[in-house]
Every structure is written in structure tokens, then in C-alpha cells.
Amino acid sequence: MGANISSTEYTIENDEGGSLSPSSRPSLGDIPESCISSFLMNLDPPDICKLARVNRTFHRASSADFVWESKLPTCYKFIANKVLGVENLASMSKKEIYAKLCQPNRFDSGTKEVWVDKCSGQVYLLMSSKSLKITGIDDRRYWNYLPTQESRFKSVAYLHQMWWVEVVGEVEFEFPVGSYSIFFRLQLGQAYKLLGRRVCNVDRVHGWNIKPVRFQLSTSNGQHSFSEFYLRDPEEDWVHYHVGDFVVENPNEPTKVKFSLAQIDCTHPKGGLCLDYAIISPITSGETLKQF
Please, which domain of life does this record's source organism belong to (predicted)? Predict the structure, then answer.
């Protein structure tokens, strides 16, 4: 006893009374690329990249220049010229520029690093100890550079002992409109590896509990900030010390920022300090500092 199974082709009735076979039904691939691109402009970059995998039409639409130009910060040409060069910039698509700027990019002989956050489009600027003006850095009796894997720049400035301690940073840079904070990354003591474990030698740390360190900030448009902190030793780890805040109100205009830390009371010497870098970070993302 057997059963005969007949295949039936289902059809969809259209508005004119005709029928559409399954192969002729509308699909995502039928949406015009320009419409898809306009939709993608309203999404965050990670979501754009996910939808680019839907099909070839979405992939092509996701590569449109106007989609990625809307995600780039207003100062992207200024940054790109510094890290990519004018010639390379002219030959790259906006998507390629965005992908490149979202990576850490070194400039000024590798002493500074800048990148764009891939989700928010905000700009971060990192300045190594070698890009800062450190009083006495050329005299090895006072300071020297120590190699370390704990720094993004693979070395830190270490203070043996000095009476006049002063570190000054200056930068002229184009930032997107917004509010920014500056921090110094400091550590009391010298860290090293011992049998695979991190150990911090604090034997030479002295003089920081007598007077606070003064932090100052000024900008070319008249903003000023001042604060004082005693350097502390939270389980011999790195600490981000807040220098101050400034606001950028005018797009496409470079802002000149000068900032410093100083302990210049010459009644007592200070020593055992490691200086890694200074960072300029958007205020809304203070939690991001934990990753450095």
C-alpha cells in the first residue's frame, strides 16, 4: 500500500490579481543601496558592521562614504593629517579612515598616541613621559627612563631623588566640541617581576607625605584649573591624578593646553616616583581610564 505525494507550488496573489512565485518575492536585496545607507547612518558603527554581513547589497551600502563620514569626529582631517599624511588621506575611503583612526596611532616621533573611540567617536590623546618637559631629566643622578611592560610606551620616567620636581606638558590639538579632563599616571615605587609575580620596591619612596603636589592647567582661550594632592600608595599600584578640566566650544579650531605637576618645596628631597604618561580624555568616559 503506498501513498502518492504531489508537490504543490504555493503562490502569492499580487494587487492586480496575478500571482508571484517564491523566487520572485521581494527580498532584502531588492532595497535600493541608497535607502539602506541612509538607514545605516542612524546606527552605531558596531551595528553597521554586523548588518554589512546580511548580503552583498548591505555590504556595499555599508561602505558608502557619507555613512562613515557621519561617524567621524569633526576634527578627523586634522588627526588624519598628523598620523596618516595628506597623500594617504586622499586615497582612502571614509570607512578606511575611520577604521585606521580607531586604532592607537603614534605621532611626534612615537611620543604621543591618539585614537577615536569606535562607538562614541570621541577622541583620546596620550602623551608619554618622553613628550613632557621634566626638570633634570638629562641628569641621571635625578631621573632616568626605565623599560617596563606596564607602560603602553614601554618605558617610564623614574625619579631617584630631587628637591625641585616639576613636569610640564604642552600640546596644541584639535578636539571635537565637548568637555575634557587631563590626568597624570603616576606610581610611588619601582615595579618589577619576581618569579612571575609583580613586586613593587618602595624602599626609595620618600618626601611625598610632607607637602602636596600642585597640579595646574591652562588653555589658550583663558581657562584655568588648580588642585593639590598628596601622592598616595594604594597597594603600590598606578594612580591617575586629576589635573583639571577644560571645555572645547568651537569646532575645527586647535586648542593649546598647558598643564603641570610640581612639588618645588626645597626644604626636603623627594624620590621614588614613576611617571608614565598624561592623558586627555572626554569627561563622560572616566571609566575608560581603568583599561590603561
Answer: Eukaryota
